[in-house]
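User: I'm curious whether this sequence folds into something compact or stays loose and floppy. Could you predict its structure so I can see for myself?
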Amino acid sequence: MSAYTCLLSQYSMAFFFDMDNPALYDSQDDSDDGDFFKDESENEDAFKVEFHNGLPDVELDFVLVHDGAHESEVWEIMSERVKPGETTNYRAYEGDRIWSLIAGTDEAVSDIEIRRDQSLYEVSEIEPLMSSEL
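Assistant: Here's the prediction. I'll summarize afterward.
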């Protein structure tokens, strides 16, 4: 899954990388399979969390929300089309902000702030967010 996120302002520069491109990885090196979170020693502050879709008949996208310029927000898809009853993993940092969206839309149904003391987050009801939160 490739995620492209770009927020440009007067003083910004953006680089785009196709992380699914096999040319980015050294084929001679069997120790690296392209998993950025495989070596946890490089991400000492990161920890594993799980998101569970407890909604019946609704697929969810989970997105990482970045605060943007001018009070707008930009998000990056972390998991797409998580089916009802399924759980997906994510390597998180304290304070990450995750929205669950109805799959394929920008309709947010929950706003999750990651805490180190909680490893499982379940979306079991639709919590319509105020327009000021979006």
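Summary: The two ends are 24 Å apart (CA to CA). Residues 49 and 90 are 5 Å apart (CA to CA).
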